[in-house]
UniProtKB/TrEMBL annotation:
Domain spans labelled Nudix hydrolase: 1-130
Keyword Ribonucleoprotein assigned: no
Highest taxon in the source lineage: Bacteria
One annotated GO molecular function: hydrolase activity
Family stated for the protein in its record: Belongs to the Nudix hydrolase family.
Protein name (Swiss-Prot/TrEMBL): NUDIX hydrolase
Keyword Transcription in annotation: no
Chain segments annotated as coiled-coil in the UniProt record: none
Cofactor: Mg(2+)
Alphabetized UniProt keyword annotations: Hydrolase, Magnesium
SUPFAM superfamilies in alphabetical order: Nudix
Length: 139
């Protein structure tokens, strides 16, 4: 079974709204994020995905959720890692228009309705914290 890592960012603005992206692949609404490329750290991947999907430069904080799933049909085992992220400038600009059709700042309640993959409110994630540390290369 193939192993896959996917990173996402929970970004809130000054009004407490969270940023969602609408995916063109039929996946609906999600937090900004995507697949970790070979050789990338989790932080590098989530920063890249945020920039590609939203045009935002983000500072990445703690991990706030780790989910996993298996697809026997696709023979893949996926880890979904969600980070808390902050941005200085909230001006968005979709860079990957073939992947993302729309960006929207929404309340947590609206996000909870649109994000079908989570079984509880994003408010729960906002309270979570797990420190992430990249140990780099070890010889």
């Amino acid at each position: 079974m193939k192993e896959l890592k996917v990173v996402y960012a929970l970004i809130r603005n000054n009004e407490g709204k969270v940023l969602l992206v609408h995916n063109t692949d039929g996946g609906g609404w999600s937090l900004p994020g995507g697949k970790v490329e070979q050789g990338e750290t989790l932080i590098e991947a989530v920063k890249r995905e945020i920039m590609e999907e939203t045009g935002l430069t983000a500072t990445i904080g703690d991990i706030i959720s780790i989910n996993e799933g298996k697809s026997y049909q696709m023979s893949v085992h996926t880890l979904f890692i969600m980070f808390k992220a902050t941005v200085e400038d909230y001006t968005t600009d979709i860079q990957m228009k073939d992947e993302v059709s729309e960006l929207r700042w929404v309340t947590v309640e609206e996000a909870d309705e649109k994000l079908i993959y989570y079984h509880h409110s994003l408010n729960t994630f906002l309270e979570n914290k797990a420190t992430y540390y990249d140990e780099g290369y070890v010889d």
